[in-house]
Amino acid sequence: MADEVQNQPAPVEGTEGAPREGRGPRGGRGRGPGGDRGGRGRDGQRGRRDDRRNNAEDGGEELIEKLVHINRVSKTVKGGKRFGFAALVVVGDGKGRSGFGHGKAREVPEAISKATAAAKKAMVRVPLKDGRTLHHDGNGHFGAGRVTVRSAPQGTGIIAGGPMRAIFESLGVADVVTKSVGTSNPYNMIRATFEALKDQTSPKSVAARRGKKIADLLGRGGSQTAEADAAAIVE
After folding, report:
1. What angle separates helix 44-58 from helix 108-121, to the nearest 10 degrees?
2. 136: left (phi > 0), else alpha (psi -120 to 50), else beta?
3. Which residues pair with 177 in a beta bridge?
């Protein structure tokens, strides 16, 4: 008994009754209060990685962002309902490039940021006539959505509604006439509009594909100013 008493280590001053360091309330090794791993939080490094990617993609250019639609969804779980948000965003540079994307998250700002990042990745270039309207008419459909886009003279403005207007504003189109027939679902309307815009071609690309001059294509209708019109076409 005497040996056992002598072999016991002496208590350190100031440590009696203090909790063991290095473990959180739930016993997680190296965690602080609330289970925070090294102070990162739920999406600590992931958010910083997304910010770096977005800055590299922007390249310093200003983009026009249009929020088209936000949908709130709920999931019934044990103890109540869990809400989430889905955002649809259209992004363009106002100079003939535009794209759309959608994102889902538990909060609205995070859903919008995800949709914006997806839209920047999916941007496409559309040839514009004089930088203000389309070169020719076009049709597009996706699912039950069917749209028609038509070029318009100067001063017409954007004759479009809802999601289609956001596309042409971000694209930089000033004069266009559109019509949507069928569904009013913004997702299908936007996809149908981009299907119509992907079919747009410029006289320059057509002439290069056919091995002819732009003036030959523009002069077939009896135009006396085919050379001047051909010289004015940039894209």
Report:
1. 40
2. beta
3. 150, 159
The per-residue DSSP string of 143-193 comes to TTEEEEEEE--TT--EE--THHHHHHHHHT--SEEEEEEE---HHHHHHHH
User: What pTM was computed for the model?
Assistant: 0.65
Q: What is the pLDDT along the chain (235 residues), one digit of tens a residue?
A: 445 545 555 554 544 554 455 554 554 454 544 444 444 444 444 443 333 344 444 455 789 999 999 999 999 999 899 999 999 999 999 889 999 999 999 999 999 999 999 999 999 999 998 888 998 899 999 999 999 999 999 999 999 988 999 999 999 999 999 999 998 899 999 999 999 999 888 888 888 888 877 777 776 554 454 454 555 554 4
Q: In the numeric block, which tokens belong to residue 38?
A: 């090294």
Residue 217 amino acid letter: L
